[in-house]
Amino acid sequence: MRDHKHPKDVNVMTKVKNTLKSEYAHWLNSFKWTHFVTLTTQYELTLKSSRRLAERFHAKLKEHGFEPILFWVAEKYENKDGYHIHALLKLNRKIEPHEYIFITELYQIVSGTLSLRDLLNTPKDELGKRTYKKWSRIDLQRYSKGKKGTAYVTKYVMKENNRLHAEYDILI
């Protein structure tokens, strides 16, 4: 015998899910995020390696005096195996253009794309940026409440197929 849910039950569950998502986003908005971040790697990320990458990235930012708060969620790629990370990031100050470059390069080391020695031996262009043959993508954007970054990340926490396979955390 098939288990059919009554339309009224489905409607109640949808309302509960939407309320939870809204409350989660509201709570996350209380942190006054400074950046919305997307992290990818050259290699396939599992849920376990996504957590390790987020923790290493947070630790390195902390080590370099940025006093980060990081809420991250692993998102499964739709058309290939593995995951990538979306995150909300709060830093202790407005960062300067050279610090964006520093954080990008720090991420290359954290993700295992480049060693510190390789990084230091890579020449810079006239803008002070290094060009990499291979690199792990980091998209570090100023956070804008209007773009609803908190709703975006909570979508992956609350998504139906993520209930059993979600990986997310807040690192302070």
Distance separating the two termini: 49 Å
* Strand percentage: 15-25%
Task: State the domain count.
Answer: 1
The main pleated sheet reads as: 5 strands, antiparallel
CATH topology: Alpha-Beta Plaits
Q: What's the architecture in CATH terms?
A: 2-Layer Sandwich
| Secondary-structure-derived class | alpha+beta
Net shape: globular
Number of strands: 5
Instruction: State the name of the first-level CATH class.
Output: Alpha Beta
Fraction of residues in helix: 40-55%
Order of helices and strands: HEHEEHHEHE
- Average of pLDDT: 84
Which strand order does the major sheet show? 4-1-3-2-5
CA-based gyration radius: 19 Å
- What is the count of DSSP helices, taking H or I runs of 4+ residues? 5
Uncertain spans: none
Care to describe what's here?
The chain is an alpha+beta fold and 172 residues long. It has a single domain (28-171), classed as 2-Layer Sandwich (Alpha-Beta Plaits), CATH 3.30.70. It has helices spanning 7-29, 47-63, 97-110, 116-120, 149-158; strands at 35-39, 69-76, 83-90, 138-142, 168-171. Strand 2 and strand 3 (83-90) form a beta hairpin. Helix 1 (7-29) crosses helix 5 (149-158) and helix 2 (47-63) packs across helix 3 (97-110). The longest helix is centred in the N-terminal third of the chain and has 23 residues, at 7-29. The model has no long low-confidence stretch (mean pLDDT 84).
